[in-house]
């Protein structure tokens, strides 16, 4: 675990381990509201994960933050991956929005302890567009892995997943205070 300053969250560096990661725009500004920016962010995340042989399982991108679920290859690559994601995308966001710097606030990572914990985080991630009022139906939100998950699992299995792992409704993540 590494903590460099009071304002930097501690990070775990574990190999071959599931990670739930959240990152936020500084001061909750809606700098990711443009669909082209969301698409650029997603492609950058995919490229950076692929570069370090990490697996990106699920993701959601909202107007001022995103959540990811993936599996590490080498845990020591965690900070490098997110520095690169945020470095690349901050230039594009800054140019597009003419916003004040900094663009990104930070990222928080959490390693689910078991399958149940993982499923709670997955459901939290998937339901985030509804939670934040972007849509009433997950089918209507394009910047989420919900559509992939639905295609892979099917409606019945996905409905059972939400029913069997409903603790996500009570989850409050520390980064909700960013």
From TrEMBL:
Pfam families to which the protein is assigned, alphabetical: Y1_Tnp (PF01797)
Boundaries of every Transposase IS200-like domain copy: 14-128
Record lineage: Bacteria, Pseudomonadati, Pseudomonadota, Gammaproteobacteria, Methylococcales
One of the GO BP terms on file: DNA transposition
InterPro entries associated with the record: RAYT_transposase, Transposase_17, Transposase_17_sf
GO molecular function: sequence-specific DNA binding; transposase activity
Species: Methylobacter tundripaludum (strain ATCC BAA-1195 / DSM 17260 / SV96)
SMART domains for this protein: Y1_Tnp
Protein name: Transposase IS200-like domain-containing protein
